[in-house]
């Protein structure tokens, strides 16, 4: 039984005993007001020992009723107190155990993603990362926001804390994380977390939310790899809906496709890959993973759309592909294994 139900049950039990005592005195003892009966019941149950407000002495039925009321009422009150005490202790104990298990799971993570803030921006971020089969840790100070996030993500790993605390970032595994997404409403907090994250992990990828466009240079200098303005993105979406609705409809349909979680994603071919110096066709992405190659981005170059399959990979390259999230994840893991010894 949950803590809330126990509290309700305890309160209801005590109220019923008080109600029964009040009505009992009102029926048994004639010419007594209901308030006097309530007062008599309360001082009897609490064993305060004031004088009789209701004339009980000499009335055998009232005396027997008082004895039964005190015995049964005290039992109910003691039971309610014990139930509340046990519920509070169990709640705190289970909370401590749950927190310890959560921290142990987080300690076992690596190459995961940290999301700072579980509000209106953070929740869709969590949902999208989960759809892409990414390991995530949420840092959020508001338990109500965490409860909303848990409705979107099963077995969510989270810390109920302030993300601007350096120790909390360490507890979230910032040193082992692949990336951190900062979605707090305050630009100052986002700037501080960006700078701290870069100091703690020089190789981590940092994406920060930004409200004030003037802060973008500062965020980039602080270590952010990318900065996103929800207001700007929303404005671009409004314009796109107006001038190219079919394209927008295509992208939305792709995200909501019943054929699987289709996404545009990227694959990395680094300098140690066995495919370095070979043609793109040798990867056989369509055959192996049912992935559609849309473009490539070689190091130091612009994105090349619809590249020739005969193109040779002579330097580290990012492959832009479209396909189901599980196929993309399989391709990512496969490419990691294709490295020279």
C-alpha Rg, in Å? 32 Å
Structural class: alpha/beta
**CATH C-level class of the largest domain:** Alpha Beta
Beta fraction? 5-15%
Determine the fraction of residues in helical runs and give it as a percent range: 40-55%
Q: Indicate how many domains the architecture comprises.
A: 3
Largest sheet: 6 strands, parallel
Question: What is the molecular shape?
Answer: elongated
The neighbouring-strand order within the major sheet is: 3-2-1-4-5-6
Number of strands: 10
Unreliable runs, pLDDT <50, ≥5 residues? Answer: none
Cα distance spanning the termini: 57 Å
**How many helical stretches?**
12
Order of helices and strands: HHHEHEHEHEHEHEHHEHEEEH
Mean of the pLDDT scores? Answer: 88
Q: Any idea what the CATH architecture of the largest domain is?
A: 3-Layer(aba) Sandwich
CATH topology label of the largest domain? Rossmann fold
Assembly level = single chain
**For this structure, what is the CATH homologous superfamily of the largest domain?**
NAD(P)-binding Rossmann-like Domain
Keywords:
about 350 residues, 6-stranded parallel sheet, about 15% strand, 4-stranded antiparallel sheet, 12 helices, alpha/beta, Helix Hairpins, about 50% helix, Rossmann fold, Alpha-Beta Plaits
